[in-house]
Specification:
Blueprint (H helix, E strand, L loop, with lengths): L1 H18 L15 H8 L10 H12 L1 H11 L7 H7 L11 H12 L3 H4 E4 L5 E2 L3 E8 L4 E7 L3 H22 L1 H6 L1 H15 L2 H14 L6 E2 L12 E5 L4 E2 L3 H6 L4 H19 L1 E3 L7 E4 L7 E4 L5 E3 L2 H15 L3 H11 L8 H12 L12 H14 L6 H20 L5 H17 L1 H18 L3 H58 L5 H20 L1
Parallel strand pairs: 5-10
Antiparallel strand pairs: 1-3, 2-3, 3-4, 4-6, 7-9, 8-11, 9-10
Pfam families: ABC1 (PF03109)
Protein name: Ubiquinone biosynthesis regulatory protein kinase UbiB
Keywords: ATP-binding, Cell inner membrane, Cell membrane, Kinase, Membrane, Nucleotide-binding, Transferase, Transmembrane, Transmembrane helix, Ubiquinone, Ubiquinone biosynthesis
Length: about 550
Amino acid sequence: MTNLLTLHRAFVINRVLVRHGLDEFLAPTPLSRVVKVLKLFALTRNNNKQLSRGQRLNLALTELGPIFIKLGQMLSTRRDLLPDDIAFELAKLQDKVQPFDSQLAIATVEAQLGHPISQCFAFFDETPMASASIAQVHGARLITGEDVVVKIIRPGIEKKIKADLKLLHLVATWFEKYSSTGRRLHAKTVIADYQTTLFNELDLRIEAANTSQLKHNFIDNPVLYVPSVYWEYCQPQVMVQERIRGIPIGEVAQLKAAGVNMQKLAHRGVEIFFTQVFKHSYFHADMHPGNIFVDASDPENPTYIAIDCGIMGTLNESDKRYLAQNFVAFFNRDYRRIAELHLASGWIAEHISAEEFESAIRTACEPIFGKALDEISFSHFLVQLFQTARRFEMEVQPQLVLLQKTLLYIEGLGRQLYPQLDLWETAQPFLKDWLKQSYGPRAIYRKIKRKLPDWFEQFPDMPEKAAKLLEHSLQSASYQQQLILSVKSLKASQKQSALRLRFALLGLALVLIALSDISFGLSQDWKTSILLGLSFISFVVSFRT
């Protein structure tokens, strides 16, 4: 039955792709040979020839449903992999999906929470507030009076996701096997990353934990507000959190009508991004306009509200240092430093010439400095950097891809709010100050001060640990010495065996010569005796050596 469903889904996908003329993507690959067969089974034809390939791909993914919409959204962030025209059109994909039946939503809530809906909420709005690929949201009020939103996973979505992912893995395998483009795009890796993201979003407890962590990080910073989570109402398929009220970040006209200071709002957006990345090493990686609101109750000091923390990114110290130093080097147009940083990080192979990489970075980035400051794209620089690095065999790290995606969102929103936003001017002091605080003398002092109690605590045990280390070193040295002696003994044994073999072969050769002389009637008694005598001596020597 499962195979029949998979086959039916494959037929549906094929029909949609052919109807939108996407068979052209197979043209440069050996799979182009099966295009006629695919068209025959599709029972349809391309009706959108006047549209660009990116527009047709957008329409096809939208028709195929939530899983493919989300895949397109994720692919749109891979500007280092996709052509610009396709990435641009995929970025337009909207995650607005037909809501599922409210009775199914109520049944899911009751099954997950173990009580009738009336015992969980004083009021539950059966009309959904929003509906997306994985879940939909309903307004409600707790028995205790707090207004909340209830997020509910789509019934049956996990089964559908697994079926579609099975097909996507198969297609990705074919694409990489038969197409150099597929290998360059790392199709199987992209689908594997996508699968991880999807399965994380299917467990709303993960999103609840992410939300709580982000709220904790900004508990003393008023520029970003994160709604509270009601943990007693959270289960894998249901999450309940505080209901927020604000102006959607995309409603620029409404923000201006409210008298919001747009310049401050744009600058605070940049501040929030860099605070998450470089201070907390934990950032909201899905900051599209639908997930960001503005509290305009104080128009001169607007604050942000963030929701939907299903996808979060993290950076380790090495990643942060790499990014910050690259950005600062770029500000100073120090392309040699950028090349050295890439080589030192190990992300560029050792055999790559630093001079060649420096030249490539200069070629990609120098034209940017010919533009006015408000025309320079910070995110474009990051894309350029990744694209250039990929030419030199650099594999872009997944956490940096999430960062690139978030930066694209942030810069786009910032310029929409305040077109004169100079992201360079805003970011440069922040990054330099972060580097100074993180790696300057004061930072070293703080690290020593933080570790000093542990050092004092471990100090009484140091003599014993040093003795064990010395003993281990001596044992290692003794073992190494024994190993050396064994190797020497083995070499001597091999040499002796080779000598024995030589004498044995000599004895055998002398016997064969004597026998050949006898068989051909050339034998002389004295000569035969000498040969046999020498062969006997050779055999004796071989056994005694």
